[in-house]
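check these tokens.
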Amino acid sequence: MKILYLSYFSSPEIFTKICHAGLSPSEARQNYETAFLNHLLTDKEEAENLTIISYLPYHKTLGEVPYEDLYLGKKIDYVWTSRNRIFDILKAMRRVKKLVKAWLKETEGEERIILTYAANPILLQPIMSIIKHTKLVTICSEVPKYRNMTEGSKILNTIKKRVFSHYNEKMDGYIYMSEYMNEVCNKKKAPWIVVEGMTEILPLGESVPKTQECVFYAGGLHIENGMDVLLDAMVLLNNNREEKVLLQLCGVGNAEQKIKEYSQKYEFIQYLGVLPNREIRELEKRATLLINPRKSDHLLTKYSFPSKTFEYFSSGTASILTKLSGIPQEFYQYCYTCNVETSENLAHDLEKALQIPLEEREVLAKRAYEFLRKEKSAEAQTGRIINFLHKIK
């Protein structure tokens, strides 16, 4: 089967360049797509049958950019466009149509399918009229109408959500992060599967010495992700402790200013800014507890699976998570849980977890790692996706 993959993926060098330009590409999405392609491209036949077109954000600070690239020996066609610049968007859409037309001509008469990471109108609108007899499947990473849009006007964001939803509803198959997504995305009652996430699971290596209790979080520093409750909980926790527990935070978001204020006031709170993924992975190994205090009262939590769960489970460090509808029950055997309704509740649950001897926590962390390696490896998850694509008729 010939597969056209419409993605957001870029080679590591290009991704780093985009990050340095301040365009804030999704690290979680890049990790997912990297793991997916790493394993897909190890199969010679699948690699030969794969074509990749990737949409990337452009800004003049990037300077000259390539329109073709190689990753693991596979060519990628990049489509660059500046955000919110109509002329550039139209130009990008013309390039997409030209590239897809060429693929359709090249694969004429063969079994073929188009796989897209999310329903991106810039990639889909120009080709919908020319792919009538080609099935279209999406890796549905989020429900468009519940997207958390923190930039731009409310009216513009509402329009964007409706446009994304329109294209998302036209799919012939869905690869979801959460089973509940099917309730609101699949009006056509198309075939679907759940593949919660994907990450490269590296060897654990030797244990890193841990001399101080350290709670660590990296990701979106948003109020809706529980950052306000976490900050106050750490103050309450340390008020009752002789040996202070360090809190380290990485990322950006609407709670960033509040975090900076707390870090200036309390020496046990450290804001580390935005760091490369390799440095974050190292900090996760050095911490004694990884936390995701995402609030469970947001509707979005039912229709998503936090990629952080895979990242934490692959680190070798114990994690403490809020119970979210989008995370299958089986995952909670391998972590601690916390209540973030109030800072008092969270402080209590953190203290309870930290009272468990570090050796016991490390045993749980290794169980989480083995669960991920055996049941949810990138190789296994990629295999499930490809098998699903082959079954779409």
User: Anything to note?
Assistant: The chain has a mean pLDDT of 93. The two ends are 12 Å apart (CA to CA). The first strand starts at residue 2 and ends at 7.
